[in-house]
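[Solved] Which block belongs to which protein?

Original post:
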Amino acid sequence: MPNFLENVFAQLKRAESRVVLREIHGEEFVSVTGGELLNRVQHVRARLRSVGLRPGDRCALLAANSIRWAAVDLALMAEGVIVVPLYARQAASELVAMMKDCQPRLLLTGDARLGGAIAESWKDSPTSLTIEDVFANAPEDAAISAVGAAPIPRDDADLVTIIYTSGTSGEPKGVCLNVCNVTFMLSRTGERLGQLMSGSTEPDRIFHYLPLNFCASWIALLSFLSRDSTVTLSTDLNKLVDEIRMASPHYFLNVPTLLERVKRGVEGAFAKRAAPVRWLFARATFAWQQKQTRGAGFSDTLWLSLGRRFIFSKIKERFGTHLRALICGSAPLTPETQQLFDMLEIPVLQVYGLTETTGICTMDDPRAPVAAGFVGPAIPGMGMQVGENDEILVRGPNVFPGYWNRPEETARVLQDGWFHTGDQGAPNERGNWRISGRLKNLIILNSGHNIAPEPIEEKIAARLSQAQHVVIVGNRRGYLCALVSGPVDRPAVQAALDALNAELPHYRQIRNFAIVMESFTSENGLLTANGKLRRDAINARFQNEIAATYGSAAENAMTPAVSAAGQR
């Protein structure tokens, strides 16, 4: 049975004269056919051999998304080289720490300055080449060489890549993925995409903006290249709206941050519209909500029809005329955001997984109704169950063989054939999983109560559309407090907390808060490279603000709602 790379190469040969990859540059596309991409892969393979790279060597790949990135990645894998993809926007010190761990023989960068920054931070850094150097004098349009075009033979256990985890706490670990992991995963993603595109007679139209060094993004690209697809790569994240319009995709992979930004943008835009438009939007939204809860009467059906014709359809058009669904991963999407897209008749298919599970554990079935707040059922061929403390355990061909050079860490998370994810959750009666939190994020109050912060943070954020991030604190304290970043004012935050606290037991209520003006970004170390909170760094950065919320005055400054609830 062919492995994943052989399948990709076979698909590219079948698409020899058809565009498979393209980049957006302004108002124009730069494209390659399957044959042209294979030709570039062959050129890179020859170049890699000339610099002495051999099967089993490790090569760090540090560059932004591009056609050339894809060609280099395919070439490295075809030569049996273990690819170590790195995030080009990460700090040099963090990149050096990862490379010191895996000791690559070669560093390929998209920019000579990146290689220079690495060399300055690490005197024993590996040989560095730019991707431009690799492609120098490449015959862009030459025919595919019949000799050596196939990837070298690989065993299922052979390592393909080492992908470093985002490091929400502690230092990143290198996740090893092998041929079996990736071959199994692409068979499952291909099956889901086939279900989504059922009935279509044209190639899949896909837009892709997420950095390819992330596992799910990389698996997505390989899945696309394994199918009859045309993939449009974003080249400017500041122009996503225009790029999506140009690509006019059938589907594309997202993170919750973007979709929640769209939700805030829609709500903010309609708040500024003329009164009749605002009224129609509100009335149509109410009618849709009524339809979900008790069924729509004649009046609701009428207003919903008008809303879809004059408002919802206009919003949907911004995603192009071909859109079938959005795919969302990295973190659970808030139910409110998913419901907005459902109202716009844009299905959002959620995916849950970790790098250690080759990016994916669950995927929504495009043939079934999606459930807001859930991330779909386990993919066929693997198992999921709930362990102690509601921890999600996973086993199957998608589970990684171990961390690079970390046998103790590997033994800790791989026990009796099950991978201990560190995530908390549970399935519903239909087998759809809800992710409730992260074990290591649990806040333990000095009362002994264990509290997952994520659900509370989501509920606060849903009530504060202007908030950029909400972080719950209180470990080993007597009660919970919150940090809120973004252009919010104290009365709005207090009102949101009062409303939420009325729904919560006393030990989960938020008794004080601080508004912080500094944005949380990966560049300032408060978010991981894929946008997750670095809680330890946030607690350290804002220790004074946190301490102030637990001052003697704050200890007694409980809102009436909190005080009353605490006496129940």
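(Second protein starts here: sequence line, then its structure tokens.)
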Amino acid sequence: MANRIKPGYSFVRKIAGPISLLVAVLSLAGCVSMPSAGPVLAYPATQGADAQGEPYQQVVIEPPGAGWLPNQIVQGFLAASGSFGDNWQVAREYMTPQASKAWRPSWSAIVYSNGPNVKGPVYSVPAAAARPAAIVKSTAKKAKNAKPAKTQATVIITGSVLANLSGSSVSGYGSYAVPSGSTTQGSPGTEPTITLVKEVTGQWRISSAPPELLLTSDAFKSDYQLRNLYFFDPTTPFLVPDPVYVPLQATPADLMNGLVYDLVKPQKDWLSGGATRTAFPAGTTFPAGPTSIGAVTIEGVTAVVNLGGAITKASSQVMQQISAQLIWTLSESGQSGQTVQSVEVEVNGKPWLPPGNTQENPVQRDSRLYNPAIGTSKTFYYLDAAGNVMSSDGIRAKPVKVAHVGTGYLQVAVSPDGRYLALIRQGGDLYIGPLDGALIKRSGSLYSTMSWDPNDDLWATMNNQIVMLRGAENQGQPIVASVLRSVGIGTAMAVPFTAVRVAPDGVRIAIVIDNSTLDFGAISWQGTNPQQPMLQIVLSPFNVPTGFGVTFTSLTWYGPDNVITLSEPGPAVTEYPVNGGAATSISATALMKSITASPGSALIAGLAKGRMADNASLTGSWMPIASGVSPVYPG
């Protein structure tokens, strides 16, 4: 963003809230190029006493100056539009009245890792019909051989695109924004353009601007924060968090109205293409209003959500699902110290009472029936030197033999319900069977990693592909998943997939690509033939590269929204939020070969030479435990 900086100071924006992995690799502060005149002055300031005098930069946005040229107007507009306060009133001063009225960017944005840069301007003479009448009349009085005045200019915005934040607008409210993960340079002809006209006063003003904000990476880090929307998996048992970006400057009412709107009318993203669904019936409406959707009002710590339309015919079960979505989504959306602790659902202004409510109190403080899948277990399994599958109900409990499988196996996995067993043998053969029954060799070869989902289907990497073996007792062929980088129709990725781990909800999957990148995908079935649906995984935009010379060697889920990885060299143990939030380093111990985790239980590591170690917490120390190979919690 090209701004004018007061001489003697660099332009540094104080970072608010957690910084996502999408932008964590970028500099937290930087200087920017500037025109000879411009709209932004930055000067040192100090927060109040409660902030212990921490210095930060106070940014003052200025309106356009007299005689500014088109490129200066555009640079000033870009700086001012990065500020969400007061409905971009200063930014609108850079526009004609007509353009200001039409410009409603909502929360959508293009985020640049290098840019936005101003290219131009290119001057032109607008058609007479497009020029102000006073200018047309003035031009007619000039000599016949005089050149018409160039009263129109076009500026192209260039730069390396870091993310595209898609959003919609509902009577002034924005919806959520999802990063695209793109890091490509905008191709010629596709870059945003800004058109300006020279008004009768002789001042240049913007007559046409892109529908989205054009932000630097620093502005994005300062102005946006991650939140979760919650949707159901296709079979309804679990709520699945869907990470979204929202502006920090949004008022609590604006924020919650935007989030509720997106629960009712989900936007297209990596999870919404068949992996999740909303409980809100199609045709659910918001109260009519000239300036807002008006669905949410805040009463203390309670969000009152008023809806109409098709929801009036929803069953009690559907209403309970709707309430669960609202409670989980809005209780995480508090900003500026305000936190929602309960929800009241109204249908056309009338409070809805949950079934069995004898006190006629519509306020709900928990979702009761529906929660995100956690995958908690205190029991872990491993292989001993004698070829037995052992289980232990905690790190200090006495191990119990649950099956004898023989030697020569490298990995073991137990289904979440504890009924089925899967093992990978030296050489890459896969065996599956009941925990207390016979094992059957399955089709395929060169299996390398595996993970059970809640439906007792096994997921694995085989020949660098991701495959699913449907049903523990099904003898069918492995189904190869088509992995796409984009939502909807996309090109299947032809790269090595070297590790997988399915989330407790069975909807999301953690994937290691070519040993060097951690990504997350949404599982869905596509196609019109119900007898032969196509297995599809759409990758999220929150991929995590390890860095040069570093490889991921093991991964495990830790709760509904976090993954823990083991990487080399090091070894290094790291916790990554699925929503792209900041990573957390965990202490490691020497000779680690694998890691497994379960919320509320100890981390268990497989070490070299058939040894194991445990860590009672994410911040504790590693201690040796019984000897064994491939320790795993169910899943």
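Accepted answer:
You had them paired correctly. Confirming on the second one: Residues 1-58, 180-185, 289-293 have pLDDT under 50 and may be disordered.
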